[in-house]
Amino acid sequence: MTRRHGAGLLLATLLAAATAPAQDGPPHESGRFRKPDLVELAPLEASIHLDVRYATTQNFVGRPVYAEPRVFLQRPAALALVRAQRALQAKGYGLLVFDGYRPWSVTKLFWDATPPEKHAFVANPKDGSRHNRGCAVDVSLYALADGREVEMPSAYDEMSERAAAHYGGGTRERRARRDLLRAALEREGFTVHPAEWWHFDYKDWRQYPLLDLPFSELAPAR
To answer: Choosing from 68, 149, 196, 217, which is the catalytic residue?
Structure first.
Protein backbone atom coordinates (compact mmCIF):
# COMPACT_ATOMS: atom_id res chain seq x y z
CA MET A 1 0.00 0.00 0.00
CA THR A 2 1.45 3.39 -0.93
CA ARG A 3 1.61 6.20 1.62
CA ARG A 4 -0.83 8.25 -0.46
CA HIS A 5 -3.32 5.40 -0.71
CA GLY A 6 -2.98 4.68 3.04
CA ALA A 7 -3.60 8.33 3.87
CA GLY A 8 -6.66 8.31 1.61
CA LEU A 9 -8.09 5.29 3.40
CA LEU A 10 -7.51 6.89 6.79
CA LEU A 11 -9.19 10.13 5.67
CA ALA A 12 -12.17 8.24 4.26
CA THR A 13 -12.52 6.26 7.50
CA LEU A 14 -12.43 9.40 9.61
CA LEU A 15 -14.99 11.14 7.39
CA ALA A 16 -17.31 8.14 7.64
CA ALA A 17 -16.95 8.14 11.41
CA ALA A 18 -17.77 11.84 11.54
CA THR A 19 -21.12 11.23 9.86
CA ALA A 20 -22.00 8.17 11.98
CA PRO A 21 -24.16 8.50 15.10
CA ALA A 22 -21.95 9.58 18.00
CA GLN A 23 -21.41 7.39 21.04
CA ASP A 24 -21.02 9.71 24.01
CA GLY A 25 -19.28 7.35 26.39
CA PRO A 26 -18.62 3.74 27.35
CA PRO A 27 -21.49 1.29 26.84
CA HIS A 28 -23.80 0.77 29.80
CA GLU A 29 -23.07 -2.36 31.79
CA SER A 30 -25.30 -4.09 34.30
CA GLY A 31 -24.08 -6.06 37.27
CA ARG A 32 -21.70 -5.45 40.14
CA PHE A 33 -18.04 -4.62 39.70
CA ARG A 34 -15.03 -4.17 41.91
CA LYS A 35 -14.16 -0.61 42.83
CA PRO A 36 -11.36 0.50 40.46
CA ASP A 37 -7.92 0.65 42.06
CA LEU A 38 -5.68 1.88 39.25
CA VAL A 39 -2.05 2.24 40.29
CA GLU A 40 0.84 3.76 38.38
CA LEU A 41 3.41 1.22 37.26
CA ALA A 42 6.63 3.28 37.26
CA PRO A 43 6.67 4.16 40.99
CA LEU A 44 5.60 0.61 41.82
CA GLU A 45 8.54 -1.08 40.06
CA ALA A 46 11.34 1.08 38.63
CA SER A 47 13.03 -1.84 36.83
CA ILE A 48 10.06 -2.14 34.44
CA HIS A 49 10.86 0.13 31.51
CA LEU A 50 8.23 2.26 29.79
CA ASP A 51 7.93 3.22 26.12
CA VAL A 52 4.57 4.98 25.96
CA ARG A 53 4.41 5.71 22.25
CA TYR A 54 0.82 6.89 22.45
CA ALA A 55 2.17 9.96 24.25
CA THR A 56 4.32 10.72 21.16
CA THR A 57 3.90 10.93 17.39
CA GLN A 58 5.52 7.48 17.01
CA ASN A 59 2.32 5.45 16.82
CA PHE A 60 -0.16 4.30 14.20
CA VAL A 61 -2.32 7.44 14.40
CA GLY A 62 0.69 9.71 14.03
CA ARG A 63 -0.04 12.04 16.93
CA PRO A 64 -0.10 11.93 20.75
CA VAL A 65 -3.31 10.57 22.25
CA TYR A 66 -2.04 10.69 25.85
CA ALA A 67 -1.00 13.94 27.50
CA GLU A 68 1.52 12.10 29.71
CA PRO A 69 3.75 9.03 29.20
CA ARG A 70 2.32 7.08 32.15
CA VAL A 71 1.03 3.52 32.59
CA PHE A 72 -1.66 2.40 35.04
CA LEU A 73 -3.18 -1.01 35.84
CA GLN A 74 -5.64 -2.35 38.37
CA ARG A 75 -3.59 -3.21 41.46
CA PRO A 76 -3.80 -7.06 41.18
CA ALA A 77 -2.72 -6.90 37.53
CA ALA A 78 0.11 -4.49 38.33
CA LEU A 79 1.41 -6.72 41.12
CA ALA A 80 1.23 -9.76 38.84
CA LEU A 81 3.29 -7.88 36.27
CA VAL A 82 5.90 -7.08 38.91
CA ARG A 83 6.16 -10.79 39.75
CA ALA A 84 6.65 -11.60 36.06
CA GLN A 85 9.38 -8.94 35.87
CA ARG A 86 11.29 -10.54 38.72
CA ALA A 87 11.09 -13.99 37.13
CA LEU A 88 12.32 -12.67 33.79
CA GLN A 89 15.27 -10.87 35.38
CA ALA A 90 16.68 -14.25 36.33
CA LYS A 91 16.79 -15.03 32.60
CA GLY A 92 18.47 -11.77 31.60
CA TYR A 93 15.42 -9.79 30.54
CA GLY A 94 13.08 -7.11 31.80
CA LEU A 95 9.63 -5.95 30.78
CA LEU A 96 9.18 -3.04 28.38
CA VAL A 97 5.63 -1.69 28.70
CA PHE A 98 3.93 0.28 25.94
CA ASP A 99 0.45 0.70 27.38
CA GLY A 100 -1.88 -0.34 30.17
CA TYR A 101 -5.11 1.36 31.23
CA ARG A 102 -6.57 3.22 28.24
CA PRO A 103 -9.49 5.65 28.54
CA TRP A 104 -12.53 4.56 26.53
CA SER A 105 -12.40 7.75 24.43
CA VAL A 106 -8.98 6.70 23.13
CA THR A 107 -10.35 3.29 22.17
CA LYS A 108 -13.04 5.06 20.15
CA LEU A 109 -10.41 7.27 18.50
CA PHE A 110 -8.39 4.19 17.50
CA TRP A 111 -11.46 2.48 16.04
CA ASP A 112 -12.43 5.55 14.03
CA ALA A 113 -8.87 6.02 12.73
CA THR A 114 -8.40 2.40 11.63
CA PRO A 115 -9.52 1.17 8.17
CA PRO A 116 -12.32 -1.43 8.46
CA GLU A 117 -10.13 -4.23 7.08
CA LYS A 118 -7.77 -3.73 10.05
CA HIS A 119 -10.45 -3.61 12.77
CA ALA A 120 -9.31 -7.01 14.07
CA PHE A 121 -6.37 -5.15 15.62
CA VAL A 122 -8.41 -2.58 17.58
CA ALA A 123 -11.27 -2.90 20.08
CA ASN A 124 -14.81 -1.93 19.11
CA PRO A 125 -15.92 0.97 21.34
CA LYS A 126 -19.46 -0.47 21.35
CA ASP A 127 -18.07 -3.28 23.49
CA GLY A 128 -15.18 -1.47 25.14
CA SER A 129 -11.67 -2.78 25.65
CA ARG A 130 -10.00 -4.68 28.45
CA HIS A 131 -7.53 -1.80 28.39
CA ASN A 132 -10.50 0.40 29.43
CA ARG A 133 -10.90 -1.81 32.51
CA GLY A 134 -7.25 -1.43 33.50
CA CYS A 135 -6.68 -5.15 33.01
CA ALA A 136 -4.74 -5.28 29.74
CA VAL A 137 -1.10 -4.50 29.11
CA ASP A 138 0.93 -4.10 25.92
CA VAL A 139 4.43 -5.33 26.66
CA SER A 140 7.70 -6.61 25.23
CA LEU A 141 11.18 -7.37 26.59
CA TYR A 142 14.43 -5.49 27.00
CA ALA A 143 17.85 -7.05 27.59
CA LEU A 144 19.30 -6.44 31.05
CA ALA A 145 22.80 -6.41 29.53
CA ASP A 146 22.29 -3.17 27.59
CA GLY A 147 18.75 -1.97 28.37
CA ARG A 148 17.71 -2.18 24.73
CA GLU A 149 14.42 -3.51 23.37
CA VAL A 150 14.83 -6.98 21.92
CA GLU A 151 13.62 -8.00 18.48
CA MET A 152 10.36 -9.93 18.22
CA PRO A 153 8.67 -11.56 15.19
CA SER A 154 6.95 -8.20 14.46
CA ALA A 155 7.12 -4.62 15.61
CA TYR A 156 4.74 -3.39 18.29
CA ASP A 157 1.35 -2.38 16.83
CA GLU A 158 2.21 -3.94 13.49
CA MET A 159 -1.08 -4.87 11.83
CA SER A 160 0.08 -8.00 10.00
CA GLU A 161 0.17 -11.76 10.30
CA ARG A 162 3.60 -11.50 11.93
CA ALA A 163 1.93 -10.01 15.00
CA ALA A 164 -0.04 -13.21 15.73
CA ALA A 165 0.83 -14.98 18.96
CA HIS A 166 1.35 -18.26 17.10
CA TYR A 167 3.11 -16.88 14.00
CA GLY A 168 5.65 -19.47 12.90
CA GLY A 169 7.82 -17.32 10.64
CA GLY A 170 10.81 -15.15 11.36
CA THR A 171 13.88 -16.31 13.25
CA ARG A 172 13.93 -18.94 15.95
CA GLU A 173 15.50 -16.46 18.38
CA ARG A 174 12.70 -13.91 17.96
CA ARG A 175 10.02 -16.56 18.41
CA ALA A 176 11.81 -17.87 21.50
CA ARG A 177 11.81 -14.42 23.12
CA ARG A 178 8.14 -13.95 22.26
CA ASP A 179 7.32 -17.31 23.82
CA LEU A 180 9.44 -16.55 26.91
CA LEU A 181 7.43 -13.36 27.45
CA ARG A 182 4.18 -15.21 27.04
CA ALA A 183 5.14 -18.00 29.45
CA ALA A 184 6.20 -15.52 32.14
CA LEU A 185 2.94 -13.59 31.95
CA GLU A 186 0.74 -16.67 31.71
CA ARG A 187 2.24 -17.94 34.98
CA GLU A 188 0.92 -14.77 36.62
CA GLY A 189 -2.64 -14.97 35.28
CA PHE A 190 -2.40 -13.17 31.96
CA THR A 191 -3.66 -14.45 28.59
CA VAL A 192 -2.21 -13.38 25.25
CA HIS A 193 -4.39 -11.89 22.50
CA PRO A 194 -4.27 -14.31 19.52
CA ALA A 195 -3.66 -11.52 16.98
CA GLU A 196 -1.09 -9.56 19.02
CA TRP A 197 1.87 -11.17 20.77
CA TRP A 198 2.34 -8.01 22.91
CA HIS A 199 -1.24 -7.75 24.26
CA PHE A 200 -2.05 -9.58 27.50
CA ASP A 201 -5.33 -9.60 29.46
CA TYR A 202 -5.39 -10.16 33.21
CA LYS A 203 -7.64 -12.95 34.46
CA ASP A 204 -9.93 -10.71 36.56
CA TRP A 205 -10.82 -8.25 33.77
CA ARG A 206 -14.53 -9.11 33.91
CA GLN A 207 -14.67 -7.87 37.51
CA TYR A 208 -13.84 -4.24 36.66
CA PRO A 209 -15.97 -1.61 34.89
CA LEU A 210 -15.21 0.21 31.66
CA LEU A 211 -13.60 3.57 32.45
CA ASP A 212 -12.97 6.84 30.63
CA LEU A 213 -10.88 8.68 33.21
CA PRO A 214 -7.95 10.81 31.96
CA PHE A 215 -4.52 10.15 33.44
CA SER A 216 -4.64 13.53 35.20
CA GLU A 217 -7.38 12.19 37.49
CA LEU A 218 -5.36 9.15 38.56
CA ALA A 219 -3.01 9.14 41.53
CA PRO A 220 0.54 7.67 41.60
CA ALA A 221 1.11 4.25 43.16
CA ARG A 222 0.73 4.07 46.94
So the answer is: 196
Average pLDDT over the chain, rounded to whole? 91
196 is catalytic: yes
Per residue in 9-26, pLDDT (tens digit) is: 444 444 444 444 456 789
Q: Please, what's the largest Cα pairwise distance for the chain? A: 53
Architecture of domain 38-217: 2-Layer Sandwich (3.30)
Per-residue pLDDT of 114-127, as tens digits, reads 999 999 999 999 99
- Could you give the C-alpha distances from 96 to 19, 157, 217, in angstroms and in order? 38, 14, 24
